[in-house]
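Workshop exercise sheet. Pairs work together: one partner reads the sequence aloud, the other fills in the structure field after running the prediction. Swap roles for the next sheet.
Pair: D.N. / O.F.
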Amino acid sequence: MSKASKTIKPKERDTIIQALSAGVVPRLGLAHIQVGRAAEIGALLRDVDRIADGGAAVRFVIGEYGAGKTFFANLIRLIALERKCVTVHADLAPDRRIHASGGQARSLYSEAVRNMATRTKPEGGALAAIVERLVTDAVKEAGERQVSVENVIDEKLAPIQEFVGGYDFATVLNAYWRGSETSNEELKLAALRWLRGEFSTKTEARQLLGVRNIIDDDNVYDSLKSLASLTKVAGYAGLLVMFDEMVNIYKLQNSQARNQNFEQILRIVNDSLQGNTSNIGFVMCGTPEFLMDTRRGLYSYEALQSRLAENRFAVGGLINNSGPVMKLQSLTPEDLLVLLSNIRMVFAAGDPSKNLVPDEALPAFMEHCDQTIGEAYFRTPRTTVRAFVQMLSVLEQNPGAKWQDLLGLVQVSADQHADEETAPDGDQQIGDGDELTSLRIGA
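Structure field:
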């Protein structure tokens, strides 16, 4: 039932346990608890390889509440980091959209770039390190070629200037170099603020950096493409952009605002499918309503519906992961059994001899949950997993306790957020995100 013995680092062990106990997806150690999803992960890995080879990719990860969208996205993000990609990610919210006119799109961009991660900085905040790496490599190359650093930087930044707004990116990066050369920390900080989309006025940007434009609502997508070029120039494989909670676009009451967001999504889809951009990929997570609702979802926009429609031959259990849409199925009881076994192994730090409960405790726990809340225990397993983690925590801290005695004390209730996914008036309700209901995922 359990995986082959593999030592789990204390930091990963503690992070996983704390996150699961709180009902959220852990940021570290996902590989230790993942289950299933081999075909889906393989498809996303091919996307990552395509990005590294100079191509582009776009995916819509679609699933019911509890199907595993957030977990799946986090897992792919970590795998992309291992393959030398840079990742940025953000959740859409009422104040964060792909297109807007009141600062919401710039807010989404800023949040995503603040979460910028690399393999050595997986928890975010990697922008400064990436820019510094570009400058350091330029200084080294200039010394080897006996030319000025400015010339090398200009050569490196030439690809960025091909994009809309790319000239401003190059100007700001040159300003960062000048700040580094003259130990002007204020100039370096201003350059990083500009790249993060934190300037709200063009006047301030012109005074501090000598550029006439800023990253604003109307150029977020173009700025992401320039950012992807920057990561490639700095020596990385490319950029993977991940947007979760796309249901917030579905929730927009104003049809014009929804359609403007759909137009931006259409640009992304067209550029990716037609090969008009390079070294960038998008993963967007949402519910089936966000995709297929013909009144307010992506399918309400005819051009998107034609590009995202299902393969008519993928029926009767047949799957097709070659298109932009990837649908995730709900957790099965068998998957949950493996998941509980994996969690037990995390508590044992990878040593089966230190398991807190025997194999028979796992199906017994699942049967208890089934009797308490029915099939919801595996379709939306947040509370189920949380209860199991809490039970193991008590056993760990009380060596004399017996799991059979604790089992009768376990209280499990159906996750209320599952009922909030769609309100009576048809508007989507946002709970805490997919979080633990996401634990269907894995390799």
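Discussion prompt: The longest helix spans residues 255-274. What would you look at next?
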